[in-house]
Amino acid sequence: MIILGIDPGIAIVGYGVLEYVKGKFRTVAMGSIETPAGVDVEERLKMIYDDMCEIIDTYHPDEMAIEELFFNTNQKTGIAVAQARGVILLAAVQRKIKISEYTPLQVKQSVVGYGRAEKKQVIALVKMMLGPEISALKLDDTADALALAICHAHSSGSGIRDYFNQKKKKLL
Questions:
Q1: Which of 65, 105, 125, 139 is deepest in the core (most CB within 10 A)?
Q2: Is the pTM of this model over 0.85?
Q3: How far apart are CA 150 and CA 4, in angstroms?
Q4: How buried is residue 90: exposed, middle or buried, by Cβ count under 10 Å (0-12/13-18/19+)?
Q5: Residues belonging to the active site
Q6: For the segment 105-142, what is each residue's pLDDT rounded down to a tens digit?
Q7: Alpha carbons 29 and 62: distance in angstroms, whole number
């Protein structure tokens, strides 16, 4: 199963594409979509949408895991992130990709085993789980996206059991 993890944002969208087979992960791709400050929000949203469509069309994920929105003190930023999240979801829905949402607490619990873990702990565990090919991982948004994909793979709602049952039926 190919899982696309997304950490939504208006300035930076982190993404991570993982293949999950027999309890093991293989990193397929990771990176970020970055939009320049000072550009109209509509243009930034178009950039995010276009790049997200390209990522989906390139890697053909079976499912997407995306961070649930939570509003902090800056509502203006929260609205822009919600708009970015909307175009990301649209790209996935148009391509009939199953979408699951996770809170930061759920992701930390799944990856670290403690829902109040610090970001550096999440990054360290993501690097440990995925191996040396991501040792150069620097961007928090990309690490968060990979953590979302890992969380989704560990989730009973991810469809992994159904996916492997379908594969077995095809082989029989």
A1: 65
A2: yes
A3: 10
A4: middle
A5: 7, 67, 141
A6: 999 999 988 888 888 898 888 988 888 777 666 678 89
A7: 14
